[in-house]
Structure formats: structure tokens, C-alpha cells
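Journal club side-thread
Mid-discussion, someone asked how the predicted structure for our own chain would compare to the paper's figures. Pasting it here so we can look after the session.
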Amino acid sequence: MYHRCHLSTLRLSLFLLLFSLFPLSLHAGPFVLVLSQDDLKDIQNDDASPVDSDSSWDDDEFGGTHVKPDDELDPGSWRRLFEPTTTTTPTSDDSSLGSYYAAVDKMISASTNGDARLMEEAAVEIETAANTEGDPHARSVLGFLYGMGMMRERNKAKAFLNHYFAAEGGNAQSMMALAYTYSRQDMFEKAVKLYAELAEIAVNSFLISKDSPVIEPIRIHNGAEENKEALKKSRGEDDEDFQILEYQAQKGNAGAMYKIGLFYYFGLRGLRRDHAKALTWFLKAVDKGEPRSMELLGEIYARGAGVERNYTKALEWLSLASKQGLYSAYNGMGYLYVKGYGVEKKNYTKAKEYFEKAADNEDAGGHYNLGVMYLKGIGVKKDVKIACKCFIVAANAGQPKAFYQLAKMFHTGVGLKKNLPMATALYKLVAERGPWSSLSRWALESYLKGDVGKAFLLYSRMAELGYEIAQSNAAWILDKYGERSMCMGESGLCTDAERHQCAHSLWWQASEQGNEHAALLIGDAYYYGRVCICSLIRRHCLVLG
């Protein structure tokens, strides 16, 4: 094992790691993490370590065990309004949410039509549900309305309070909004706790063998102009390239079948996720001899995605995939042996062998899983130093769960020196892959259909959660479309002043996160005196207790 995670680039005497996670675009610099010798903590592995005592390490580090549908992971989400076929059947426990969803539906319709009367009606219903019924999800939306100044006065303090109580009530999107607010104020003790919980939700939705593709929000603009090339690739079933691919698949092309299955499984290229269609295409591809589909079928049966969960079938498909040279499948097989799923009993020795096979073939997931075994002492003597180095190798290859573990190490001071700002930044990047990121897909779909008002509403909601691309997209819509953006102000459609103030605030937030185009616009605004000094004062007057 030692040679696998102790590559020459990781020798402590010369240790320097430089990598980026989820590069945002040419307009927003990538997140760059530099680790040096000083970041590595000298650990006596024989000593009692915080790994044993810190409850934050007690959950399943391999992920995938506590998989729940997205609408359960993201309660109060607008998913049932945008993807009704993918949500679970409502139970008696959430029947009371009917009035909440009816109000949100009105709000969305109002944004489409620019109907101020309907928007006010929706705002009243949301406020009633929040203040009278104490509904945390209504509180979350009310916080959004106050934060944006939609049919309510723009009031950051009221926005914060509503998000605070919504987060206490279990609303994950308000947790994201709170964490982002705290991080902007450099209140890392509070921000890191929220982002850690949100990142854990995101990690538990990741695959057990191969890495999920990074589905980044699409930047709909390129500087001041529309980003036509990116939008062209996001039109889903209406895209000409997709139609050609579908035609090839229908004619028996196994590779095309696999790609379409992949698109539907992950919701790529502007397609709605559809596990049933994905399963159909993967099975057809396997019949035509396409080995990559075997691994995804293993994932589908392990997760119960569109089928009844069956670990025995999962192991069968993953085993077939591994025999075809798909080394990432060994991770799924090792995972099943670690957990004892689909096999006679847990077998850590066999699990380690499979993880090593994956790692020996330069699979990042293999390094990650070996790191977990050494971190937890599963089937091996616990060695936090080796675990840390395994995570670094995996992270350097872009493995998202490895970033989560490094965030934990910076958070707890296990393996790396405690660094809350770094932990916060890493947790945030992982958390942004959580189920609430679906807002971006719905916003893009709306924009492509010409529903600019709905797109602006959805991007604005996402911007509040701290997504830089959503902040710049929402700001660009305001600047580009003006009155046609259907922006809602305090008492109706936005006045010019309200629209400019909102755009300025969004560009400002995007510039804080490295968006160079936004920074240029902000600089121009101040240079040419287009910003009232009072807006700058208000921005720094919010005191968080």
C-alpha cells in the first residue's frame, strides 16, 4: 500500500500540491489550493486520535449508504413543481405543505407573466404560512423575498432571521444561504458547521464506484454577450447533436446507446434525469456488447435508481465490468464487501484488494477508498498520515469525496493543521453539488424556452445560496433584458433604480468570488459615480448575532 499513496510528488521534504476544484470559467478564477509542509500535522498514529472521539467522523465515509431521494435530502425544494415525475409520493406528514407549494407555484407563474398582483398574493400566502403556521420552508422563501426586495422591503436582517429559523426547521437551502452569509462575514466557526452538514448530504448522493460527472451550472453569458456555444449544447432533446445520437442508437450503435443512457442517468446536456430511460438504454447497450454500461447497471441496482435495490445484481454487473478492464468498478465491489451487501459477510481483506486494484490502475476512487480504510483502521492498522496522502492523490485527480475528507481534516485538525477558512471553502465547493443545484437546471430550461422572468427568479434563488455563476447570470439578465426580466420590486415590477441596485448587488457578490467581468463592472460603476455611497454603507451594516 505504501507505494500507492507515497508518490514522488508527495514526499514530505518536497511536498507541494497545487490543484483546482470545479473551475468556474474564464471569467471566474478556479479555486486553487496550495498545501505545503507546514500544513501537514505531525501525527502519532498510536496515540488516541480525534478520529476516535470526534463525532463528525462517525458517519459512513464511503458514501452511498444512506441514499434518499433528492426531495427528501432537500425538503421544501421546488422539485415537485418542476420535476413532478421524479418526486416521491407525498405522505400524510407533508400534506400540510399543499398551501406552501400552491403559493410558490403562484410566485413562479407571476415571474413568468410579470403579474405583480399575483406575486403579491403569493407573498402574502407565504408570509402567512411562515409567521402563522411556522412552516420552515415558507420561512425560507420569505427570507428570499426580503433578501431580494420582492414585494417586501429589501431587508437583510429580516432575510437572515427567516433563513435562520428555516434552517433550524430543516430547510437545507436556508442552511446554504446562512452558511454563505456567515462566510462573507468571515464568521468561519459558524459557516464551517453548516457547510460540513451540507457537504455530507452531497457526498452521500455520490456514486459508489465511478465518479459522477461534475454538472456545473451553465454561464449563459460571455462577458456582455450571450454564451451561444454553451447554450447550444444544453437544449436537451431539442439539440440537433442529441437527435443525431439518438438516431444512431436506434440504428443499433452501442456507443450511442451508452451515451444516451449516461445523459438520462445524470441529467446531462440539458436532459431531465430519467432513470427508467437510462436503464433501458444501458441494457440495450450491454446486449450490443458495450462494457461501460455494465458498471452503470451495477450502480443502478446498488442505489435502487428506478428499480428495486438489489445488491446481488449490483455485484454481478460490477464484476462483469471489472473483467472488461473498467477498473473503477473495483471500487463498487470493494464497497459491497466493506458493507457486507450482496455477499455472505463483510470481508475487509477482499475489499482492500479491490481498492488496490483500482488504485494501481490510476483510479482516483481507489486511492480515496484506501484512504478511508487507513483513516478508520478498517482491515488495516490505522494510519492517518497514509490516509491523508491517499486523499491528496485522489483530490489531485479531481475526486470530489477526497476534497470532502481534506475539508474534514482542515476542520478537525486531523492529519492537517486546523484551518477553518480552508475547510469552509472546500466544504462549500462540495456542498454546491448537492440536490439544491437542480435550481440551475430549471433556470436554464426556462431561459432556453424564452421564459426570462422564471429564469431570473430561479437564478436569484440560487444566487442567495452562494453560487457565483447564478449571481452573474441573474445580474446579466437584469442588464440585458431590463424591463423584460420581469424583476419584481417592493411594490410591483422593478423600477429602474431597483433593477440597477439588484444587479449591482449581484455583480458585487460574483466579484467577491473571483468573477473578473463582475469586478470590472463594479469598478466602472464606482469610477463613473453610478453607485450611491449609501448602498455601500448598507452592505456593511448587517450585524449577525
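Post-session note: The first strand starts at residue 17 and ends at 21.
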